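Collaborator request, handled under Task 6.
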Amino acid sequence: MATTKIWDVSAHVSKLLAYVANKNKTTMEVERETDIEEMRLAAEVLGLSTDHFATEEKKFVTGINCTPDNANEVMLTLLEGTSPSNIQVYHGYQSFKPGEVDADTAHAIGIQLADELWGEDFPIIVATHIDRGHVHNHFCIPATGFSGKRYHDCNATYKLMRDTSDRLCREYGLSVIENPKQQGSKHIAEVHAEKKGIPTMRDQIRADIDAVANNEFLSKNFYNRMRSLGYSFERRGKYLRIKPYGYNKFFRLDKLGEGYTEEDIEARIRNNARAHQWTPIKYYEPTLREKPRGLYALYLHYCYLLGVIPKVIPKNPEAYAAIKEDVRRARMYSEQAKFLGKYGLDTKDDLIQHALKVRAKMDVLYKEPQKLRNKMRWMKDPAEMQPIREQIFAISDKLKPLRKEYAMCKDIYDRSDDIEKTVERVEFPQLVEQERQKSALKKNGREER
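C-alpha cells returned to the collaborator:
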C-alpha cells in the first residue's frame, strides 16, 4: 500500500534538493561489495547514473535526466527566463505501509514511477528515506521542463500519479487502497493547522454558525444574528458565501464541511421550530465553595467571554470584535484553563516552578536518544537497528506532551497580563475610558508645565 502527494514549492531549488538527498536519511551501510554491484547493474539497465554507488554505502538517491551532483544546475537553467510564477519546483511523495517493503524495492518503484510520469520532459531526483519507521520516496521536479512548458499540477495529473503508483504496487505484490476516502477540497494550510491542533478561521465560522443556528427558529433571525456578530453574506451564482468581520476573503458555505450548506443550516432551524423546545444554556456561575482563584479564575472567565463555556454570544458587536481574534484560539485557551486547574497553578510563581519541573524531565529524555544513536552507529544490519529506532520513536512520543506543557507554561506567562486587560476592556468599558481620559489629562498637564 502506497499513498502519494505532490505540492508546489516556492523556496530555492537547492533547499529542496538538500532535504530530499540528505545523507542521514538516504544512506545505508552494507557489508558486501556484491550489493553495490547489484545496484550498479540495475541502474545501468535503466540507463541511470551510477556515480553514487562508488563507496560501501547504499545511498538511495537517483537522478533521471540529470545526476545528483548536477541536478541543481540543470534545474536552475531550465527555470531561467520562464514564467514569473513564484513556484520553483514540485515536491512529490510516495509512502509505503510500514514493514511491507524494503528500501531497495521502494527505490526501484520510485524510479519507475518518476520515469513514467515525468521522465520525458523533466530532470528528476528520486530519493528514498529510510530514517523513519516507514520507507518513503521523495521526488524533486522543476516547474519547467526541457520543452519550456510548465508542469501543470491539477486533479487529473494527481490522479495519474496515484493510479500509476497503485499499478506499480500491484506489480510488485504490494497492497493497494482500493477505495480511498475523498479528502475534500481543504487548503494545504488548513490541513497542516488541523494536524498541529491550531484553530482556523473555518473552525471559528462553524462554531458561530452552530451557536446561532441551534437556538433560532427562523432563517431570517439566523442571518440577522450572524450579521450582528460582524459577518457578511453574498450570493455568487447558486452558492451562498460568508465573510467574517475584518477578513478579506469570503468562504462558500458548502465548503465548510458536512452540515454547513445553506440547505443544511435551514433544515436545522426548521427542526428547532418543529420541536418547539429550546434547551436552556448553562451559564458560568461558580459557587462560593468552588470559586477558582488567580490565573485559573482569569482563564475560566476569559473562556466564558470567548464562548468556550456555554453562554449567549454578546449582542454588542463592538464587544464581540474586541475578542474576535482570540475567539479563533478559544480551543487553546480552554486547554490552558484545564491545565491550570489540573495542577492548581494560581500564580505566576506556581507556573514557573511547574515549568522548571517539566524542563528537568525533558532534559533527562533528551539525552537518551543520543545514546541510542551512538549505539546504532556501529550496526550494519537494518533488522538489528529497527528495535533501537522504535525506542527512539517511543522517547519522542514521551517528549511530545512535555513539550506541549512547557510551551503552555510559557504562553500563559506571556499572555496572562494582556488577557486581564482585554477582560477589563470587554467587561468594564466605562472604567477603561475613564482611565484613558485621566492619563490624557496628566499628559496634557505635564506638557503645559
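The cover message to the collaborator said: "Residues 281-289 have pLDDT under 50 and may be disordered. The first helix runs from residue 13 to 20. Please let us know whether this matches your experimental observations."
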